Amino acid sequence: MKKGFSLIELMIAITIIAVMTTLGISAYSKGSDKQIAKNSGETIVSILTENQKQANIGHEDCTGKYLGQQISISSGGNTITAVSLCTISVGEPLVTSIDNITFNSSTTMVFNPLSQGVTDASSITFTGPNGSIYTVRVDSSGTIEYSGVQK
Predict the structure, then answer these.
(1) d(Cα 79, Cα 91) in Å, to the nearest integer?
(2) Which of the residues in the chain have pLDDT under 50?
(3) I need a labelling partner for 73 at 20 to 30 A (CA). Which of 17, 47, 101, 115 fits?
């Protein structure tokens, strides 16, 4: 009697390993895409929070009366532009690119100085690498919330 595995047994074992590997790679890829989108949302919240803080303390890198921190986002892009607004001039724009996402709509909002809320508050939606749509909401009082995946 010979000891060992038959060709059919080896083929079944290899097939099972291949299927398990494929499932593992697929799950890893989906998880990785979700983590990228989560990190992107957290980056957006961080940028908004930092500019809100600058407005609350009266940050100013321009001349004239300080009017707040303006945030601008363009549809189809992946950049957020922040700038100090003043009556005479504006400050130096700070542009931040966020990889692997695309903003779905154009948005401009202003964090008013001294905790006076937000002018033109809105939701910021973006598409992550997995094709899902994510939302960061800013209400008129200045509350910033990352609500995650929308669809």
Answers:
(1) 18
(2) none
(3) 115
